[in-house]
What we know:
By secondary structure, this protein is mainly β. The protein has a single domain (7-445), classed as TonB-dependent receptor, beta-barrel domain (Maltoporin, Chain A), CATH 2.40.170. The chain contains 1 helix and 25 strands. It has a 22-stranded antiparallel beta barrel. The two termini are 43 Å apart. This is Outer membrane beta-barrel protein. It comes from Paracoccus angustae.
Amino acid sequence: MRRGIGQGALAAGIAGLAALLPLAAPGLAQEADPPPSEARLTLGQQIAVEDGTLVGITPLELSLRRATRVQSLQFSLSAPFRLNDPDESKTLSLGDPQARLLFRRGARNAAIETELGYRENDLDEEILFDDIDNEFVTVDGGRVAQTDARLTYVFGREAKLGGEFGLSWLSRDYSGTTDPDLDDSETRSGNVVFYLEPVPLIRARVLAQASRTDSDDGTDSRSDRYGAGASLQVDKLTNLDVELARTDIRRTEEDGTIEKADGPSLSLDLTRSRPLGDWSLSFGSNPGTAGRREDFNIGRTLNLRYYDLSGQIGVTRFQGNYDPIFQIAWRQQVSRISEFQASLRRAAVTDDDGDEALNTDLSASYSRQLSGVSTIAANIRYRESEVQSGDNEDARSASFGLNYSRDLPNDFALVAGASIIRSKDSNGTRDDEERVYLGVNRSFSFLP
Length: 448
């Protein structure tokens, strides 16, 4: 997978943090009761057949959550040990470790949040982690380690004057790769936003953002953005958000070539509430070293008794060409014991080398509680990158997973499953993976 400068990658693939209230509404955190504290350790033993090789796996997972009305702490760790892994020279090795720490402290009108994370995995499994917004699909058999940090402070979100300060850092380190575009990189970014509410129906803002990416191949990217915007309540049902900014991009290639782009960035979002859901309209225009990108979308959401449906359809313009873009998401409680979710999205992306692509992402999942102690779940995902500028190859990847779990006495659980990943690029290069596993886990809760 290609590296990206979007902050969505800072939390990709990490579950368990969604219970934390967003910084966008810090005052709400003080009104709701905090979630109960929890500390849980899970150990297990599994036997897996991976691409025809028998591998022993010892999963180790730790989760910790402590919360009060003014602060919360969450920590998660996953470190599976592997025996006789054919890809490792040692008999006993560490599989795909992951760790994440998040701390938040908030008063009624202000909050500070910090997050640290680490993730390491095979590149062919990036389909399970990366976001469509900032990554290209790449077919390669190596590994990637990602380390990230984030610090955010907000104040005055419910006052006439407020603001937000943010800093983030992301490092991606590759090993065992053959793709020349997969270079180690480090990205540092920061943003400052001040909010002003001159009248109750208008909330204006002044913003500044900066991002710096340095790659080991000598490619350096610099992006600065500053401007102003406002959110307006047009009437009781209609809201309008407008932002106009100046964007400056400077990119130094490994051969010393300098590419520059500058100009205005414009975004417009219009939302109108309806009894069963909202209508939306959005337009965005941003400069880039390969050309200006313009997006236009019309969307609709439906919140009904048995299902939720949201969709957008539009067009993107780049280098004089028009391409359709769309997004649809469906969630349905099929019955009291089963649930189905599906989504399809096509969107334009730009990586930190300035290359442009259209990414398509299809995913679906189904879960069913077979009995009071057993559950089965299946999921499928397909991703494709169609490169529009740059020397990357078009590529696609698909994955399928089936998992079964059954509770046993004394906090034991039987787990079993299978997964298949298929990847291919426009050069005909393939990278496939198959895995079947069976094992027993046990969980320990060590908080009263």
